Write a sequence for this structure.
């Protein structure tokens, strides 16, 4: 067998997708989840039965992350009555209501002024932002072992930046994170909170991110694939 080879675990599906197998000179068995499916990384001589059991043991974890990746990306389109609005991994149905002054949520619907749908919907998301962002950032900041204290959590509308952290301990998150699955919001919150301990992107910083949010790579991958669509939605 060559030093590295790719095959599949025949007949094995997770989340409806086949499981790829990549053998190499590595010593341990590992698993990677992407939007395209699962890849098992294994030593050359590891028995297939053991690999199948490894996947089964990880199935619930893997399917949870596949669902995050496979959530339909937002599509830039004009807002109309009946539009589906993403909200932290769930969806709201937009209802255009004449003579309404401002948007308001009723169960799984968002009622908004028919005369000014886009601005009203955006204003509603921005109103939710700090109430949702603040406790999430505080949660990760409280788990830091060192670093400066968190002084404030603020909302940002800065184009091209999902978040920031200043030397003064101010963390800002983009309101459009509310359009992403909640795992993505938690990743960005942990990412910025970790800067309270390490105001850089050194190995020590990424070790802190991993400690705060161990599965950050999956959320990071979702943001790389779907983030541009979020920034363009309704703009």
């Amino acid at each position: 067998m060559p030093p590295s080879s790719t095959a599949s675990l025949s007949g094995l599906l997770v989340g409806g997708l086949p499981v790829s197998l990549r053998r190499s000179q590595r010593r341990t068995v590992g698993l990677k989840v992407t939007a395209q499916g699962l890849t098992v990384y294994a030593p050359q001589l590891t028995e297939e039965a053991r690999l199948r059991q490894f996947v089964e043991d990880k199935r619930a974890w893997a399917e949870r992350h596949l669902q995050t990746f496979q959530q339909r990306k937002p599509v830039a389109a004009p807002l109309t009555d009946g539009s589906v609005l993403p909200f932290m991994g769930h969806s709201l149905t937009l209802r255009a209501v004449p003579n309404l002054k401002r948007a308001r949520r009723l169960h799984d619907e968002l009622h908004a002024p028919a005369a000014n749908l886009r601005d009203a919907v955006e204003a509603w998301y921005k109103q939710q932002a700090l109430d949702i962002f603040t406790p999430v950032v505080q949660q990760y900041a409280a788990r830091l072992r060192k670093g400066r204290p968190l002084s404030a959590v603020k909302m940002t509308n800065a184009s091209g930046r999902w978040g920031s952290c200043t030397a003064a301990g101010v963390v800002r998150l983009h309101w459009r994170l509310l359009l992403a699955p909640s795992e993505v919001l938690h990743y960005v919150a942990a990412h910025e909170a970790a800067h309270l301990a390490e105001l850089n992107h050194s190995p020590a910083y990424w070790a802190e991110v991993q400690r705060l949010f161990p599965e950050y790579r999956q959320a990071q991958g979702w943001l790389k694939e779907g983030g541009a669509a979020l920034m363009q939605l309704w703009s």
Observations:
- The CA atoms of residues 29 and 54 lie 8 Å apart.
- The mean pLDDT is 87.
- The first helix runs from residue 48 to 70.
- The longest strand covers residues 5-14.
